[in-house]
Write a structure and sequence with these properties.
7-stranded mixed sheet; 518 residues; alpha/beta; 21 strands; 31% helix; 14 helices; 4-stranded mixed sheet
Length: 518
């Protein structure tokens, strides 16, 4: 049973009940109206049925309706629920934060994804970050195919590993040596183990809203104060596993000072997302990252930058290049795999050499340095570092004619990403202001998030003030308009070099319309 709003011509709004069957039939439950607008509230579809009697015996929308159909996605999700917990292999994909059911993707190309029902969306999730060059980039696909011809996995050193290591070290000056892993979770977990082994200390500082993977010691939330230890944030994590994790509010200088004062010579390091992207997106206040660098160095602790999300996205050298900070260790993922599973951590040579087989800190992985992931990542990094990924935004007239603009001298992928990000930010701010809807649009380069709140967002406490119900309505409205945003208020959005000025224009126009209706 669902509830739908029926609007009679020239009359006030009345709510009636309707049944919806998965076979796309709509059966009148109480009354039949000659003219109606039926809004399916439990899904993302909006169907306009003029003259119910003309919709056919099944009650389905007319064949020429522009509404999206989701029969195949609904069938697949029902089947997935039988065999996969929650029907998904990563929680946020289940749409629990926004309601409704997820769609299933059939293919993706450039800035578009297409679902199994043939619906197409402008994609701002970008595989949760890796697709900075857009989906199915031809050079990445070619690199993977060529590597696969020689075998999919060896468990033996391969040349691609050396090339990848050299690329990362050349692009990120703070990294003198690097080791590959299979995920960002592994990279962060290993970096913390290494920091503890190097300093011979146990305690680690992390921040509210910063996600560093699902390792037990990191699945914690803040306690009753800046000096308290975190409590487990997941069932199955013993409290003893998190007793050495200190959780503090992001952007709070005094809390960090207090933590060091209360734990003299006990803190191994600080791990931080330099631009947190797992509670939406909020930026470090001016001087905050510099402060973290200074206080760790003064107290013999290590500074670990989790650049799984920001690495090679905010600049060729990541957030540390953008903000001019030199951490001791850095964690990477996403972009360095070109869309394949990957992770890495690296830093000063004297720290990295404590890893086995040279030192006593153990870390290993059967598929680490997988040749397919390395080949894909090398293609992505080379394309980004040489600027060949840039496509200059085309004018509307050239887009219609199919003509492509040439790349001006000195232009590169990151300048394009910055331009598109600024265009989206300006457009969204203008749309929200015109609709008189309080929205804080946070952006750093090609990462962004729109919070439905009137106050600035600098940390998790600020982010939690955002109107999640309003975001859910906005999300489904945008999805109906063919724009796919992350299905949670507390996730980052991403722009790729495959997006165009026209894509941003369409997105802003859709947002303006949806915001007016909130």
């Amino acid at each position: 049973m669902i509830y739908a709003e029926v609007i009679l011509s020239g009359s006030s709004r009345v709510v009636y009940q309707w049944r919806y069957a998965s076979s796309c039939t709509v059966k009148h439950y109480k009354k039949t109206m000659p003219i109606l607008r039926w809004v399916r509230l439990t899904s993302r579809s909006v169907w306009l049925c003029n003259a119910f009697k003309n919709t056919g015996s099944s009650g389905c929308p007319p064949a020429d309706s522009d509404a999206m159909k989701h029969d195949q996605s609904e069938r697949l999700f029902a089947e997935a629920l039988k065999f996969i917990p929650g029907g998904v292999n990563s929680p946020v994909r289940a749409f629990r934060a926004v309601g409704g059911q997820p769609f299933f993707v059939d293919r993706a190309k450039g800035a578009r994804v297409r679902d199994v029902d043939g619906n197409e969306y402008i994609d701002y999730v970008c595989t949760w970050g890796p697709a900075i060059l857009g989906h199915a980039h031809p050079k990445i696909i070619a690199a993977v195919k060529a590597a696969a011809d020689h075998g999919t996995s060896f468990g033996i050193p391969n040349p691609h590993e050396v090339t990848m290591a050299k690329l990362i070290c050349s692009l990120v000056p703070s990294v003198q040596k690097v080791r590959m892993t299979n995920s960002g979770t592994e990279a962060c977990m290993s970096a913390i183990r290494l920091a503890r082994g190097f300093t011979r200390r146990d305690k680690i500082i992390k921040f509210d809203g910063c996600y560093h993977g699902h390792a037990d010691s990191l699945l914690v939330k803040a306690g009753s104060g800046a000096l308290t230890f975190g409590n487990p944030d997941s069932a199955g994590v013993p409290a003893a596993f998190t007793q050495h994790t200190i959780v503090l509010p992001f952007n709070d200088v005094e809390a960090v000072k207090a933590a060091f004062d209360a734990n003299i010579n006990q803190i191994a390091g600080i791990i931080v997302e330099p631009v947190p992207g797992n509670a939406g997106v909020y930026l470090p206040k001016p001087g905050y990252l510099e402060f973290l660098r200074e206080i760790t160095r003064a107290n013999g602790a290590l500074l670990i930058f989790d650049e799984v999300m920001t690495g090679f996205r905010l600049a060729p050298g990541g957030a540390q290049e953008r903000f001019k900070i030199t951490p001791d260790l850095s964690c990477f993922g996403k972009i360095i795999g070109g869309g394949l599973p990957v992770g890495a951590f690296g830093g000063r040579a004297d720290i990295m050499d404590l890893l086995a087989p040279l030192g006593p800190v153990y870390q290993a992985g059967t598929l680490s340095g997988n040749p397919l992931a390395m080949a894909a990542g090398i293609a992505a990094l080379e394309e980004l570092s040489e600027g060949r990924a840039l496509r200059v935004p085309e004018s509307k007239s050239k887009q219609k004619s199919g003509a492509r603009a040439t790349r001006p001298s000195g232009a590169n992928a990151y300048s394009k990403l910055e331009q598109l990000g600024a265009q989206l930010e300006t457009g969204m701010q203008g749309a929200a202001k015109a609709a008189r809807v309080p929205v804080q649009f946070n952006r750093c380069g090609s990462m962004f998030c729109a919070y439905f709140t009137s106050g600035p967002v600098h940390n998790l406490t600020d982010a939690m003030k955002s109107g999640r119900a309003r975001f859910a309505k906005f999300f489904h409205g945008m999805l109906d308009a063919g724009v796919y945003l992350a299905p949670s208020q507390f996730e980052a959005g991403f722009i790729s070099t495959a997006h165009t000025v026209a894509d941003i224009d369409r997105t802003v126009k859709a947002a303006a319309k949806i915001l007016r209706g909130l």
